[in-house]
Design brief:
By secondary structure, the chain is an alpha/beta fold. It is built from 13 helices and eight strands. Strands 5-4-6-8-7 form a five-stranded mixed sheet. Strands 1-2-3 form a three-stranded antiparallel sheet. The protein binds uracil.
Length: 268
């Protein structure tokens, strides 16, 4: 029973990169893969080996042959990542088309997740006005505050899978109800697709999603726990919007991110 197993070491849960082998069978899918992975990735045409997947770094580049990519031998670029291009696109499409609850009637459209280079997931609450307009999570004032703080710690937004517990903006940014959270089961599907090794749960709604606790994010912020159910480490942090409401939350918010950054460094 995995629930009774002791927490594995960080090394043990850091598996090599794994892609859907069927997804990388032509230069075209290699291009889609590079595009989906983000601006650091591109297709490199090697005179001898043909098309390769390339990831650029500050100090050079890392390349994988198509056969390595197809076999899932994609480790070595300073991180772990795990996704299937095809399934990711499919899930995006399903989320955007969702009409499962009443929240869909008052928002512009459901806001799906943004993919990142690492299989590390940041989970906030629900889209606000700016996210509803743009179709991307955490792009408003709260997001700016979060990305600025993480940038100072040496991370980029594109490093992480960014998402919310609930995909549609609740009217007046109300906290989503338990019923809305349970109907909006997209995060469960994302978890199965990405299988994150590390999660940053931001705020009480994310805390409740992972632990069942209705509140208590202040006490949990700055801590990390192994969750056997998800086979992931979960770090807890204050929601960045809480700093916008109360400056005094700033220190605790910073403490949560520092702990998260400490964990990320162990994985990369
Ligand atoms: N607040 C959230 O919880 N998520 C967003 O995407 C934006 C604001």
């Amino acid at each position: 029973d995995i629930l009774s197993r002791p927490p594995p070491t960080v090394e043990a849960v850091t598996s090599p990169l794994r892609f859907d082998p069927g997804a990388i069978n032509s230069i075209e899918t290699c291009r889609i893969l590079a595009e989906t992975l983000g601006p650091d990735f591109r297709v490199y045409e090697d005179a001898e080996q043909g098309p390769m997947l390339e990831r650029s770094h500050a100090n050079g580049a890392h390349r994988w042959s198509m056969s390595d990519a197809a076999a899932g031998r994609l480790d070595g670029a300073g991180g772990v990542l795990q996704k299937s291009v095809v399934k990711t696109k499919e899930l995006h499409g399903q989320i955007v088309a969702c009409t499962k609850c009443e929240l869909r009637q008052s928002c512009k459209a459901p806001v799906p997740f943004d993919v990142g280079h690492l299989n590390i997931m940041l989970v906030a609450e629900a889209p606000g006005r700016d996210e509803d307009r743009s179709g991307h999570p955490l792009v408003g004032q709260a997001g700016d505050l979060l990305w600025h703080a993480l940038d100072q710690m040496g991370f980029k937004r594109s490093d992480f899978h960014v998402t919310n517990v609930v995909k549609c903006r609740p009217p007046k940014n109300a906290k989503p109800t338990a019923e809305q959270v349970s109907v909006c089961d997209w995060l469960d599907k994302e978890m199965r697709l990405v299988r994150p090794k590390l999660i940053l749960a931001l705020g009480n709604t994310a805390l409740q999603y992972f632990t069942g606790l209705e509140k208590g994010i202040m006490a949990k912020t700055g801590t990390t726990e192994w969750h056997p159910k998800h086979r992931a480490w979960i770090s807890y942090g204050m929601h960045p919007a809480s700093v916008l409401w109360h400056d005094s939350n700033d220190k605790l918010f910073g403490r949560g991110l520092e702990e998260f950054a400490r964990m990320v460094r162990q994985f990369c």
